[in-house]
């Protein structure tokens, strides 16, 4: 899944795109911490289970002020590693100019005031997500800017003292257990699925 959003609380603004790529692949029920998770087989039940995991993780990230905190909780709840701490590995050699829409959301008059940062959020040997960050260094402290440029501390933890929050503009599910247009295809005749009825107000 990918999420496009920005975090804002004066004097901080950040636009980012987060793509969760690894956390679900490693989220199969574990036999033990030292063992590898069992593989996913291409069955109806596996596809349904993966969809349920995706929706649960997606809801947790959207409801949390920090994607990093949501991923850490996920790793901790699923006992994937002894240490659920997430680090942000800086991916160097990339630079992206913010779009006009991103500049507007950042309330930055010029791209010269914006800095770009690409990171991989990692926990143990797993890459949980890839994130593109655009932020305004002039709205952060010197210590925060130094940490963002030189350390493996995730953005949300660096700026935690500013009490940021996230506003989501779009969510795209990158994998579906069913093909496009499946709901319009003929179905085999069987017993009709009964949905619960909403209670009528008195």
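Sequence proposed for the structure above (202 residues):
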């Amino acid at each position: 899944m990918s999420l496009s959003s920005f975090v804002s609380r004066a004097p901080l603004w950040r636009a980012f795109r987060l793509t969760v790529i690894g956390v679900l692949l490693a989220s199969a029920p574990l036999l033990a911490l030292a063992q590898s998770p069992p593989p996913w087989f291409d069955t109806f039940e596996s596809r349904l289970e993966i969809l349920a995991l995706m929706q649960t993780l997606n809801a947790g990230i959207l409801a949390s002020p920090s994607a990093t905190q949501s991923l850490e909780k996920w790793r901790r709840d699923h006992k994937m590693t002894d240490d659920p701490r997430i680090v942000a590995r800086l991916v160097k050699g990339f630079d992206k100019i913010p779009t006009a829409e991103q500049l507007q959301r950042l309330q930055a008059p010029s791209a010269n005031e914006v800095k770009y940062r690409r990171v991989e959020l990692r926990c143990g040997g797993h890459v949980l997500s890839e994130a593109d960050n655009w932020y305004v260094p002039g709205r952060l402290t010197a210590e925060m800017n130094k940490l963002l440029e030189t350390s493996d501390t995730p953005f949300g933890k660096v700026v935690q003292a500013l009490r940021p929050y996230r506003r989501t503009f779009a969510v795209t599910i990158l994998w579906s257990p069913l093909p496009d247009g499946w709901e319009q295809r003929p179905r085999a005749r069987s017993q009709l699925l009964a949905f619960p009825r909403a209670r009528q107000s008195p």
